[in-house]
Every structure is written in C-alpha cells, then in structure tokens.
Write a structure and sequence with these properties.
alpha/beta; 2-enoyl-CoA Hydratase, Chain A, domain 1; N-(1-d-carboxylethyl)-l-norvaline Dehydrogenase, domain 2; eight-stranded mixed β-sheet; 29 helices; 17 strands; binds 3-hydroxybutanoyl-coenzyme A; binds 1,4-dihydronicotinamide adenine dinucleotide; NAD(P)-bd_dom_sf
Length: about 700
C-alpha cells in the first residue's frame, strides 16, 4: 500500500513517529486516508527506531469521520473498522492528539488509540444517528468502556457534540491550546513507552442492575421522543452489546446493526439530506467576481408578527436594527412584544437578564424614513398589499444609501413588480422568513429578474450569520414552499368533502412522520390566512366549485382556528388539543350533496397519495420552471419550513424512494378516476413523466 502524501504524512521525531492527516476540508477518512494511515502504521511498527506513534491533523478539525460520499459503495478496502482494530492491536503505544473537533469515525479513531490528548476547548461527538446509522467503527463498544453507559448513550443516541472537558475517563491529558498540544502529546507518548500499549478492548464490562435500568429508561424515552426513527433504538442495542458480550462479539454485533441501519430508506434519506443542506449553500452560475456586501446595520419596516421575529434574529447575532412603523403606538406594541419574547426565554433559563438588555439595546424604534439613510439592508414586513409595498419601496429608494439591499418578506406578491417601484431593482430581493421568524430555520431567498449576483451572495451569507438555512428560489405565487403546500391543503379539504374525517387525514399524515396533519396545522396558523389568499386568487380556483368550500364556510362563521377556540376542530380554553367536531362533517356532507359529490369510505393509502403526490407533482413543475435549482433544495425547504420528516429526506427524495413510475401511475389513476376534479388537478408534470419514462430519479437531475 502506498501513502498518498497529500492526505497523510509520516515523519520521525527522535523515537516517535508522527502521523498527520491532511485531507481538506474536514479530514474525512476516505479510502486514501485509510490506506495512508495503515501504511504509515505498518512503517512505524517495523521501524526499530520508533517506540511510540502519535496521530494528529494538519487541519483545524481532527476529523469529521468516515467519508459519507463513499457510502454509496465501490471498493472501499481497507475498511475503517479494520484500520482501527489494527491500530488498537499495535505492539507500540499509539497516542491520538486532537488539535480540533473529532466526529464519528474521527472520534472512533481516537478511541482505538491507546492514549488520548486533546485541546481543552475541543468538542467531540458521534453524530452517525443523524445519518440514519450508528457508529460502526467500534464507537459503541469503546466509548462505554472508557466512560459509562449514560455518557455513551447520551452521545450516541443524541449525536450531539460534547465538550471534552465533560468526558472523564476518555482523555489522558487536556492541553491548553493548539500551541501546547505537540509538547503534551510528546510527553504522553514518552510516558506511554514505559507503560506500553493499552487497548480499550481489554476493559471488561458487565451489565449490573443499575446499568440495566439506564438502558431501560433510555429505550422508553427514545421510543417516545424519536417516533418514526429507526436508528436511535439500534444505537441503544449496540451500546448494550458492550455490556453483554465480549469485545469482539460486541464489534460484530455493532457491525450487524450498522448494516441493518445502512440498508434502510431512512439512512439513504438522512444521508441525502446531509448533502442537500450543504448543496443549498452553493448557488451555481453566479459571477465569481461578485463580492458579498457587508451588513452591519439593518432596518425592518413593520413591527408586526413577522417584523418582530425577524428583528430578533439580527439582535441575536449582535447586529443593530432600526424598526420603522408609521405610528408610535404600533411601534411601542411591536417592541414590547419582542421584549416579552426575550423575557420569556430568560424565564426558561435560555438567556440571562443581561443578555435580554443587551439584545434590546440593539433595537431602535423610529417613525420617520430619514432614520434609514445609513442602513446596509432593509427588510420590509408590512401588510400583504401591493399598493402598500410599492409605497414603502419608493420611500426606501428615496432615503437609502446607494448599495443598500432592499428586501421584502412578502409571501405571495410579485417581487419584480415591487422592484420596479424603485430606481434600483438590482438591489431588490425577497427574504421570505417563516413564522415564528425567530425560531424557524428556513429562509427562502427569492431572486427577482434583476437581482444582482452580489445581492444574492450577500443574502446567502447573511442566512448563515443569522443561523438560518438559506435556499435560493425564483419568483412565482407562493415561491416554492407555499406554492406546494397550497396543493396539499386543497387535497386535504377535498378529501373531507368526499367523506374522510379531518382526524383520519391528520392521522395518516402524522403516520408519514409530519409533526401535525393539515387540519391541525390550518387551525394553528388561522384558517383566515388561507381564506384571504383564496379571495385574492378567485381567478385561479373558480373552475373548481369544490375548492376549500368547507373551510370557507367555517371562516365565514367565525371559526378561524385555534385563536377563536374553534376551526376545523374545537379547543377547550387554554388548550391546543384538537377535539373532533361532528358539525364539521355535517357541513361537509351538505356541501358534498350540493356539489353532487358522493361521499364514501376513503382508505388511508388514498389519503396519503392524494395529499403527497400532487405536492410532489407541483415540486416537479417548480423544477421544470427553474423556480428551484435542485430537487434537494425543495427537500431542504420542506424539512426546515414545514416539518417534513428528515428520515424521509424531503418530498422529492420520498418520491425517488417510492419510485417516480409509481408516483406517475397513481397521479394518472386519480386523474381518470376522480372525474372533472381529477382532470383539473391531477395532470402529471411533464418532468415527472419524462423522468419516470427514463427510469430516472429527481436526484439524478443534478448528477
Ligand atoms: N464526509 C464527507 N464529506 C464531508 C464530511 C464527511 N464526514 N463532513 C463534511 N463534509 C464535507 C461537506 O459536505 C462540505 O462539502 P462542500 O464544501 O462540498 O459542501 C465540507 O465537507 C464542509 O462541511 P460543512 O459545510 O458542514 O463545514 P462546517 O465547518 O460547517 O462543519 C462539520 C464541519 C461539523 C464537521 C460538519 O461538516 C459535519 O457535521 N460533518 C459530518 C460529521 C459526521 O456526521 N460524521 C460521521 C460520519 S459517519 C461515520 O463516521 C461512520 C463511522 O461510524 C463508521
Ligand atoms: P402584521 O399585520 O402582523 O404586521 C404588519 C405590520 O406592518 C403592522 O405592525 C403594521 O402596523 C405595519 N405597517 C403596515 N403598513 C405600514 C407602512 N406603510 N409602514 C410601516 N409599517 C406598516 O403582518 P405579518 O404577519 O407580520 O406580515 C407581514 C408580511 O410578512 C406580509 O407581507 C406577509 O405576507 C409576510 N409573511 C407573513 C407570515 C406569517 O405567518 N404571518 C409568514 C411569512 C411572510
């Protein structure tokens, strides 16, 4: 085996061999790295001048673990467990020197070494569970041997990074900084020469009653909390094997459970999502010379529901915000609400009272546009009415400095038209936040016809600064997320007319893994929101007399959802628990009769297909029209904006898993079996037909 010296180097310093990993950007343990480590280890072991070995990294990170892009297959020898077992069985002591964070296989590499030194500010973790798998290179067997069952379960089941300072028993020495690491690692190596190799596998564990109780409590908790996920329970099984089996059998059990997870659609979905989220960050085709602008002061127009939440994102990131309302009263109300939100976080222990004051001190309220002359970015969040938006944008055009970015948070209006109200459409962009804007991670970044590449780059960078996941989309009604959700809501409503109860529809959708069904979601958001959108879209829906007629009648009767104590469901005072209301099905039956729709029993399968497949079909049209750049961008929008289960990878990945031929066949089935309604709404997208006919997937579009 040859060492690829670009990714692994080995040098001798006195009687110590230093193996350095250098596989940018994150030291993923690719085949070349594994081969390099194996060869370097063999060379060090056969060199009589070497008495100890130190493994470290030349990059800021020690290692991000196995190379996830290799999971799709190929010749992967030597496999990571083989390399790590080889290290552990070495006849000379091996020391891991962690200059930076270590995740997954990276931490497992350190655990397979005989001694461990780390910079004390480092975090380490076993995040495999987020990829639908479990640590498969000995992590489930070695970590509990060095720490304890609870620590190992906490790390492996949650996947969360843990400060090394919290891991007693795992590290032999914590060092102050990267600068002091080399000397401390050398010292540990010199001591190790006297003590000899110290394989973790030689530590014996047994399952006593207390430890067994820890496992039982964990299983119960995970069954409740991680509903629908396959890997977390398998993680527990694997860690338990460390207590019930000899080391080598435990490793074999870990390997068996690892493969069981790896072969699930969930693992494929979660690994797809890992790359989807990162791909969304890269916008192809932008001018390489365009530079993101610096944003050090922001203005928000409108201190209502959205304006307040948006402002909090910037204050949280330490960026000063000027909030503008036309009336002092509205301004005071908006600022008071923000303060209340922060104070509630403080009551829950999430913020200190100093932090509350520090964040509030970054917010200034004004009623005069002249105060906006020095801001770098304005986000408009006023009423959803084109004439109001245009007035705001022409005022901004008048007062803002050249180069200021003018953004709108509109959810439905044409951003090209808004941009034309200014003399600088190249600086106008959509920043579509989701409610509650201080909580939801998604930010749809809407590129209008004339938006410049500089402005797009600034918005993508800004999303990271305020800890959002930014996804670039194009202009159309509802952009990507809401355009697709409209189809889903329409179908849920139609199913109610045809005889399905709201409880049945919600149950089926929750079984898919969504946090709530469409009717519970509608009640929570307020049924009046959809009602007003429908009123403004009459031309689009008038050919379907059945379009959301039950919801319309409920709103007209004042049943606007949770906030009114009644919507599709009833709510007891102070409770968010939906209670089924037979009156709603009576309205549905009456409306169905008026429309000549025969009510019938509807299967769960039909409900699932009719809510989700048209949504996917709309996604296909969105891709065909170029409104979204990649199918995986739509998946990111749906997971972060709408709670689509990450273990399904998003709607487009779900479609790939179901098979596009199957989705197409069912769309055609409903197109022909649902009469005029089917003809109107179930016409398959040309892109769906094309891909299904060629046996392709949505994800193949970007390969
Ligand atoms: N394999 C392959 N590529 C990886 C990778 C990995 N383990 N980790 C990160 N990358 C890639 C990313 O895709 C990204 O590529 P891009 O520039 O082309 O988009 C690049 O490295 C930089 O990654 P991030 O943008 O995520 O960089 P950050 O600095 O924001 O985050 C990180 C760094 C915290 C290490 C984050 O990348 C991360 O969480 N990585 C995954 C860690 C992980 O899940 N490890 C377990 C792997 S599975 C395993 O080890 C199995 C074993 O038990 C057998
Ligand atoms: P809101 O009604 O809660 O707040 C609007 C605020 O704008 C009010 O405080 C009002 O006084 C102020 N305002 C109105 N005209 C103004 C003007 N000319 N100058 C300055 N201030 C003015 O509305 P909300 O829900 O915050 O929505 C704002 C925008 O965000 C809309 O475009 C909406 O479509 C969009 N949006 C709303 C979401 C939601 O869930 N509420 C989600 C995503 C986007």
């Amino acid at each position: 085996m040859q060492i690829d010296s670009k990714v692994v180097s080995v040098e001798q310093k006195d009687n110590i061999a230093l193996i350095t990993l250098n596989n940018a950007p994150v030291n993923a343990l690719s085949k070349a790295v594994r081969q390099g480590v194996m060869t370097a280890m063999q060379a060090a072991l056969s060199n009589d001048g070497v008495e100890a070995i130190v493994i470290t990294s030349a990059l800021p990170l020690f290692s991000a673990g196995a190379d996830i892009s290799e999971f799709s297959g190929g010749n992967l020898e030597p496999m990571l467990p083989e390399v790590l077992n080889f290290i552990e069985s070495a006849s000379k002591p091996v020391v891991a020197a962690l200059n930076g964070a270590a995740f997954g296989g990276g931490l497992e590499l350190a655990l397979a070494c005989h001694y461990r030194v780390s910079v004390e500010s480092n975090k380490v973790g076993l995040p495999e569970v987020h990829l639908g798998i479990l640590p498969g290179a000995g992590g489930t067997q070695r970590l509990p041997r060095l720490s304890d069952a609870k620590t190992a379960l906490d790390m492996i089941v949650s996947g969360a990074p843990t400060p090394v300072t919290k891991l007693s028993g795992v590290f032999d020495k914590l060092t102050a900084s990267v600068e002091t690491l080399a000397a401390d690692a050398q010292q540990v190596a010199l001591n190790a020469i006297a003590q000899g190799p110290r394989p973790v596998s030689e530590i014996n564990l047994s399952l006593d009653d207390d430890t067994n109780a820890v496992f039982n409590a964990y299983s119960e908790q995970v069954t409740q909390k991680s509903k629908g996920f396959f890997a977390p329970l398998k993680c527990i099984e694997a860690v338990k094997a460390a207590y019930t089996m000899p080391f080598n059998d435990g490793l074999a059990e870990e390997a068996r459970l690892f493969m069981q997870c790896m072969e699930t659609p969930q693992a494929r979905a979660q690994q797809h999502f890992f790359f989807a989220e990162r791909a969304a960050n890269h916008v192809p085709g932008l001018d390489k010379n365009a530079q993101a602008r610096s944003i050090s002061k922001v203005a928000i127009i409108g201190a209502g529901t959205m304006g307040g939440g948006i402002a909090m994102n910037f204050a949280n990131a330490g960026i000063p915000v000027v909030m503008l309302e036309l009336k002092q009263e509205a301004l005071d109300k908006g600022l008071a609400l923000i303060r209340r939100n922060y104070e509630n976080s403080a009551k829950k222990g999430k913020l200190t009272s100093e932090q509350v004051e520090q964040r509030m001190s970054l917010l200034t309220g004004v009623t005069d546009y002249d105060a906006l002359s020095d801001v770098d970015l304005v986000i408009e969040a006023v009423f959803e009415k084109m004439s109001v938006k245009k007035e705001v944008f022409s005022a901004l055009d008048r007062v803002c400095k050249p180069g200021a970015i003018l953004a709108t948070n509109t959810s439905t209006l044409d951003i090209n038209e808004i941009a034309e109200a200014t003399s600088r459409p190249q600086d106008v962009i959509g920043l579509h936040f989701f409610s509650p804007a201080n909580v939801m991670k998604l930010l749809e970044i809407v590129r209008a016809d004339k938006t410049s590449d500089e402005v797009i780059k600034t918005a993508m960078k800004l999303a990271k600064t305020i800890r959002k996941v930014g996804v670039l989309v194009g202009v159309c009604f509802g952009f990507v997320g809401n355009r697709m959700i409209e189809v889903y809501g329409r179908e849920a409503n139609r199913l109610m007319l045809e005889g399905a109860t709201p409880e049945q529809v919600d149950r089926v959708i929750m079984q898919l893994g969504m946090p709530m069904g469409p009717f519970t979601m509608g009640d929570m958001a307020g049924l009046d929101i959809g009602y007003f959108v429908r009123q403004s879209r009459k031309a689009f829906i008038e050919h379907d007399p059945s379009y959301c007629v039950v919801a319309d009648e409920l709103v007209e009767a004042g049943r606007v959802g949770l906030k009114a104590g009644k919507g599709v469901y009833l709510y007891e005072a102070g409770s968010r628990k939906p209670i089924a209301d037979p009156e709603v099905m009576e309205i549905a039956a009456r409306k169905a009769k008026e429309l000549g729709i025969e009510q019938r029993e509807i299967s769960d399968q039909e409900i699932l297909e009719r809510c989700i497949y048209p949504l996917i079909n709309e996604g296909a049209d969105i891709l065909r029209e170029g409104i979204a750049g990649r199918a995986s961008d739509i998946d990111v929008i749906y997971v972060y904006g709408y709670g689509f289960p990450v273990f399904r990878g998003g709607p487009m990945q779900y479609a790939d898993e179901v098979g596009l031929k199957n989705v197409l066949a069912r769309m055609r089935h409903y197109q022909s079996s649902l009469g005029e309604y089917g003809k109107q709404w179930f016409a398959p997208s040309e892109l769906l037909i094309e891909l299904a006919d060629q046996n392709k997937t949505f994800s193949s579009l970007n390969n």
